[in-house]
Automatic annotation (TrEMBL):
Pfam families: Epimerase. It comes from Massilia aerilata. SUPFAM superfamilies: NAD(P)-binding Rossmann-fold domains. This is Bifunctional UDP-4-keto-pentose/UDP-xylose synthase. Gene3D superfamilies: NAD(P)-binding Rossmann-like Domain (3.40.50.720). Residues 4-251 form the NAD-dependent epimerase/dehydratase domain. Keywords: NAD.
Length: 346
């Protein structure tokens, strides 16, 4: 019976992973977060142990539970592009500095550290597929603070790799645009406050204009969260130690669509739902510049496709959810919240 520590347990990945662990294994979940709204239904479970806290404050609790548990997943991070541009120091302080003591504790107590790297770590690589072992990591100039997130994550990857050279049992996983219910709040109308799919969904629900940054030609490989969690479960299990010392892209190269195509797919699907159709009819699509939308410090990646051969081979894993099904699952999940979202138009 594994004891799994999930820091950021109420987050997008954290709450989906906790739900899967409790439903399909005999593992114990020890979770910390500042909120518990996404995991309310799990709090009464006998194998769910939740502590309301902050990794930057409750450091003794964190270290005690790193020592107590078998597997450590530090999932606390800022991962919204608008914050990279507007508050880069906050991103560095939380994503790198606050997580470094956790990494060191995992090394000190000999635990399996499963750390969330990011698809952004590849930056503006020109490779057709991003290869965790061979792709070069390409970032823009210092006056583009958008890259502080990728840079902080890359540095943490390198630190963890260094601890691995000294015996740390680690696995790095790089999520490629995981999507699903609970990604961000659809009730937040502010531009750039959430990731693209949630942003578009909120606009559709409220009948607002959708802005395509720089025309929306940039592509992303979208991955349904259930597929991502499947991979994580296999990494946690770590059968025959196969995942130790590995870097895994966890993404679906088949679901590679432009942001413009995403908007069109979502509007078409919304028209099929009585709850969403009226809002969708009011939506207009406009183009805007990245400078106007995010600020002058933004740069984008035109294509971001994962190479997943080692993820498939080592873990016996493959993504199975196509884009149409992924979007439908999300639309189904929010059917009961439409009125609440509509009431939040600024």
């Amino acid at each position: 019976m594994k004891k799994v520590l999930i820091l950021g347990v109420n987050g997008f990945i954290g709450h989906h992973l906790s739900k899967r662990i409790l439903a399909t294994t005999d593992w114990e979940v020890y979770g910390m977060d500042m909120n518990s709204d996404r995991i309310t239904e799990l709090l009464g479970h006998p194998r769910m142990h939740f502590f309301e806290g902050d990794i930057t404050i409750n450091k003794e609790w964190v270290e005690y539970h790193v020592k107590k548990c078998d597997v450590i997943l530090p999932l606390v991070a800022i991962a919204t592009p608008s914050t990279y541009v507007q508050a880069p120091l906050r991103v560095f302080e939380l994503d790198f500095e606050a997580n470094l003591p956790i990494v060191r504790s995992a090394a000190k107590y000999g635990k399996h550290l499963i750390f969330p790297s990011t698809s952004e770590v590849y930056g503006m690589s020109q490779d057709a597929e991003f290869d965790p072992e061979n792709s070069e990591l390409v970032y823009g100039p210092i006056n583009k603070p958008r890259w502080i997130y990728a840079c902080a994550k890359q540095l943490m990857d390198r630190v963890i790799w260094g601890y691995g050279m000294e015996g740390l049992n680690f696995t790095l996983f790089r999520p490629f645009n995981w999507i699903g219910a609970g990604l961000d709040s659809i009730h937040t109308p502010k531009e750039g406050s959430s990731r693209v799919l949630t942003q578009f969904f909120g606009h559709i629900v409220r009948g607002e204009t959708i802005s395509l940054v720089d025309g929306g030609a940039q592509k992303r490989a979208f991955t349904y969260v259930d597929d991502g969690v499947d991979a994580l479960m296999r990494i946690i299990e770590n059968k025959d130690g196969k995942a130790t010392g590995q870097i895994y892209n966890v993404g679906n190269p088949v679901n590679n669509y432009s942001i413009r195509e995403l908007a069109a797919m979502m509007l078409k699907l919304a028209a099929e739902y009585p709850e969403y159709a009226a809002g969708a009819q009011k939506v207009q699509i406009v183009e805007t510049s990245s400078g106007a939308y995010y600020g002058a410090g933004y740069q984008d990646v035109q294509n971001r496709v994962p190479k997943i051969e080692n993820t498939r081979e080592d873990l016996g894993w493959a993504p199975t959810t196509g884009m149409a099904d992924a979007l439908r699952h999300i639309f189904d999940a929010y059917r009961g919240q439409v009125a609440l979202a509509c009431g939040l138009v600024e």
